[in-house]
């Protein structure tokens, strides 16, 4: 097993996660199998109890692990399936060591940070790195490890010590350290400054880690004399100094690495060029095409994102990526209009009328509406109003998790005239509980007590839009994260009033997908389809939203005849088809698609 460690210096937020993912893409393009590990030095056992404002979105894995959003980057970039153990936290490490101490595993020894904590970290990395993460079922060739935070952070010291020991443990030729640092430009002098990176590397060396490669973040490409200066003061060869300057979209990052021959530098450090398995030159044709197409999209599609964490886009990172994947597949330039749900409420009209008017103007100017998941009662009334607006005005709507639940509440209040209808999450004493607490949930413990991970949804209505979008499969497996569910006892009343529950769990008692059959596109999902969306495999429900919002849904859902040699079907506008897998996701296959469209003649671009 070979290891690539990615660390960060100077400031946080430099893009270590995207850099680590892009290194993985580059090495995968060389024919190597890749796995990833994210180290988060915080004391939390996992990310599940943290506010999105604290650490961005909580990403959910198939096994129910609530993890850092960077694992979402790894899965999307590398098209792999990770587990909760691929996210190491201080809390997990200390909990494991304390459990061993309580069992007597240390035979009376004094348990200390060194060697017990550091050994646990190293053993965890070695164990998890061997777990297969792709369809081959074989262990990876290279494990990319990202150390969260910034060099010098006090909470990451045990991990830095452990990784320093680990580099000696695995031996020369098996460990490559990539240090991501900042080369800023001061407006006063207008030149690129190397001093922050010099100090960062000096601090890294002082902690026992020596960088093999420098990945320098900057707004503009590095000047040659700056590279020479960095090489001189940081003791890193010029070919190993990689510049990651700002780009139009993140799909360019693997291409930047390739163009600067970062793969050659990494393979040389890892001694892979001399190993039995000789990697090929990186094949990144799909990435090149995708990055170029994304840059050249002209026709906009506006989606109103109605939520309460709109001040931090990382709170909805996977949703944004899923929207982007679908937009590129359908040849549309994504424009996300953020709408704070609180600003849609009547109380805002009285307190801050300007914000109220702006929120409603933004909502009404959108081509489609998306209400993502969330917790708590703040802004819920605004989300209900957004769902009502979309339903009454035939505007495409996608509700995810809470977004589905509030659509059910709105339907009960407006159509069924149950004015007291609510969720017991927001009103525990409501006499019309449309949404209820799940019986198996815990009301005393927050962490890892929700319905989490991959669960099966059975389609009960075959000719509904959702089933067609998923390729008319009988079931799909999607990831969940919720404590509340639609009240199954009220489902017959809802269906009698016209709301269709087209997808249910295997028991038939838990509602998974709702639709309004008479609406252009009004769909809600209890699961989170965004977590399984990939650049080359857009989530079907997001494809549906973007297609409906851009006038392409009829073509997307239309059954087609036999494909010709060019992959064109007999539809009037002509479309390129996508392969639909049993898991409900779509994937390009030699320019063809069985059941889903990715392009039309009026400006759409096939992925």
Write the layout of secondary structure elements.
Elements: E1 2-8, H1 16-29, E2 34-40, H2 52-55, E3 59-60, E4 66-67, H3 70-78, E5 87-89, H4 90-103, H5 113-129, E6 142-147, H6 157-170, E7 175-182, H7 195-206, E8 213-218, H8 224-234, E9 241-245, H9 253-259, H10 262-269, H11 285-296, E10 300-307, H12 317-329, E11 333-340, H13 346-351, H14 353-364, E12 368-371, H15 380-392, E13 397-400, H16 402-414, E14 421-423, E15 432-437, E16 451-459, H17 465-469, E17 475-482, E18 484-486, H18 491-497, E19 500-504, E20 511-515, E21 522-525, H19 540-549, H20 553-557, E22 576-580, E23 586-587, E24 595-599
Parallel strand pairs: 1-6, 1-7, 2-5, 2-6, 7-8, 8-9, 10-11, 10-12, 12-13, 13-21, 14-15
Antiparallel strand pairs: 3-4, 15-18, 16-17, 16-19, 19-20, 20-21, 22-23, 22-24
Describe the structure.
The chain has about 600 residues and is α/β, with parallel strands linked by helices. It has 2 domains: about 1-290, Rossmann fold (3-Layer(aba) Sandwich), CATH 3.40.50; about 295-555, 3-Layer(aba) Sandwich (Rossmann fold). The chain is built from 20 helices and 24 strands. It has a 9-stranded mixed β-sheet with strand order 11-10-12-13-21-20-19-16-17, sandwiched between helices. Strands 5-2-6-1-7-8-9 form a 7-stranded parallel β-sheet, with helices on both faces. A 3-stranded mixed β-sheet has the order 14-15-18, with helices on one face. The longest helix is centred in the first third of the chain and has 17 residues, at about 115-130. About 50% of the residues are buried. One of its GO terms (molecular function) is CTP synthase activity.
